[in-house]
Amino acid sequence: MGIPLRQMITVGSYVARQRLAGRKRYPLVLMLEPLFRCNLACAGCGKIDYPAKILNQRLSVAECLEAADECGAPVVSIAGGEPLLHRDMAKIVEGLIAKRKYVYLCTNALLMEKKLGEYTPSPYFSWSVHLDGDREMHDKSVCQGGVYDRAVSAIRKAKERGFRVSINCTLFDNADPDKVAQFFDSLEEIGVDGITVSPGYAYERAPDQEHFLNRQKTKELFRAIFRKGNRGRRWRFSQSSLFLDFLAGNQDYRCSPWGNPTRNVFGWQRPCYLLGEGYARTFRELMEETDWDAYGTGNYEKCADCMVHSGYEATAVSDAVRHPLKALKVSLRGVETEAPMVPDIPLDRQRPAEHVYEHHVQRKLAEIEQAEAQAQAVARAH
Ligand code: SF4
Which end of the chain is more exposed for a tag (fewer CB within 10 A), N or C? Predict the structure, then answer.
């Protein structure tokens, strides 16, 4: 298992407390995006297609720590953009660890070796290095040669210094199950502690729109991969056994987008990490005023193909807490790869996609320009 026991106990008891308190919706992992700027431009990424003025925005250390307090989730995943481009990232991580949050710092690792000295190993801290496969697969995925080698070198250095390191791997419809299985096998030798794997979400702003997986292909791909690894038991995943079972078509889950609320430079993003359909000023506003039933597979066209962990892992964790024996059975026996799959969610009642990107961008730019004008007026007055 790629999740430390201590973290599993903390998360399990947190979920049990939420259930005892009768909360229907609660956050599990805060997705913190302190910036959108990146030093790569991957074909499947829909996060960085913003004007420079938005890419230059940063959440401050105080804003990041306040987001963690507001939200209260036990785990914080710092994503982006490339978080290591934020000059105060080490302070943000330090502040979150002081609050006893389990922090995953997602990075493409291009700056990781250079910045390792700014961080201290802790049971609360893990690097989460983006690796979409072996050298050939990963460099193709990130559209740049040499990135895999730099990431592996950084992982080895981090392990020598005593850090926990997991990888996050996104798969597209060109993934070859044999090669993915060999790649997962190779991670043991590199010293990786855990694997987070997910199908790519079909971002409307991603440059490559041809290689996203639909749900049927996702399930077939994951079954084919798990078959090659003793029903998935050969590898250490940083994910719940029931989420992996869901990826293989064995669980009839509905999305829980509130499980991974997202705070970025726009505010609290509605409804999830993948979709920016609107923004709330506070976490409370996000939870109380979002029309959650308007989203999720079967409800909204943009959710039709989604099986991503940021929507479905919280559902799986909640199910594991309610049915621990079911989760244990999958952990011990591995993921079912041969039985008929559960029927998928019908799409005939989903509402059509809304196109809101331009509106949000224009609104944010107007906000930035107003703040700049105010700052200039203050400067002139002094
Ligand atoms: S299904 Fe859930 S996680 Fe996926 S895009 Fe829709 S709301 Fe977001």
Answer: C
